[in-house]
């Protein structure tokens, strides 16, 4: 698209062009296939890693791109503009990787982040449970200490990247009596005994993006897999990361709207009715006919207020913990 947002620079524009090329050449031809099988093949994840499109805002010392949220944003825009929504890069790079970066030990960071950046390891985060919806305090999945391990029992649903995931950041209840302070995030490797995947869920849209049910039946993981210095920090960790999660979803949604307007305008210029193209008739029939098409959705005030200044400064969009 001709318009560029105010925070875009030449380096970000070059990254966006490269990302768009990847999505158009490597993903677009397979979207129908992925929609049928309901997941993206692992080879494409590795190709994204080879192209440097994963974990762009993770520091280079952990195998990432060393960039900022702006780098993740232009990749999300390129993906939406290319009509290739199936590969769950946002969940993997902007959400899961940043939980590990923010709260993981050095060992956890060096173990997982380089392999996530290469596409060798795919990440998911498991919050939602059957019957709980978005009520995090109603979570029933339990993690009970047994010696040097946690033993996890419970179920999760609507988990993006769940079918392909090699690690799942799992929200567990570690102290039933502590209310919101009784939840913790624990890294669960999906090759652990007792872990299983249920059905890959059929959805109204995003058919190629794997979304499935997960089951934990006596899954034993080391206590060293806890994210954070102590138990009970999970709820606070989730609240601290949610602003960035919401912003990357907003970036993708705005880019999708931009693409929808672009395709609609192109169609109205091609479609003939009553001896003229629909766009011309529409313009004559309404003084505001070209208004929304002429203003890029990414320039609406909520986006500018939320992220523009921090993006310009190369800062994280997640507020600092106080």
Task: Give an overview in words.
The protein is α+β, with helices and mostly antiparallel strands and 322 residues long. The chain is 42% helix and 18% strand. It is built from ten helices and ten strands. It has helices at 10-27, 31-37, 42-50, 69-81, 89-103, 106-118, 234-270, 278-285, 291-294, 301-312; strands spanning 123-126, 142-146, 149-160, 167-173, 183-189, 195-200, 211-222, 226-227, 272-273, 276-277. The strands form three sheets. It has a four-stranded mixed sheet with strand order 1-4-5-8, with helices on one face. The chain has a four-stranded antiparallel sheet with strand order 2-3-7-6, with no helix packed on it. The chain has a two-stranded antiparallel ribbon with strand order 9-10. It is globular, with a radius of gyration of 21 Å.
Provide the descriptors you would attach to this structure in a database record:
10 helices, Butyryl-CoA Dehydrogenase, subunit A, domain 2, four-stranded mixed beta sheet, Butyryl-Coa Dehydrogenase, subunit A, domain 1, 322 residues
Order of helices and strands: HHHHHHEEEEEEEEHEEHHH
How far apart are the termini? 40 Å
Low-confidence stretches: 286-294, 297-308
Main sheet record? 4 strands, mixed
**What is the approximate shape?**
globular
What number is the mean pLDDT?
Answer: 87
CATH H-level superfamily title of the largest domain: Acyl-CoA dehydrogenase/oxidase, N-terminal domain
Under CATH, the topology of the largest domain can be stated as: Butyryl-Coa Dehydrogenase, subunit A, domain 1
Helix percentage: 40-55%
- What fraction strand? 15-25%
User: What CATH architecture of the largest domain do you see?
Assistant: Orthogonal Bundle
State the secondary-structure class.
alpha+beta
Kindly report the spatial arrangement of strands forming the biggest sheet.
Answer: 1-4-5-8
Return the domain count.
Answer: 3
Q: Tally the helices: what do you get?
A: 10
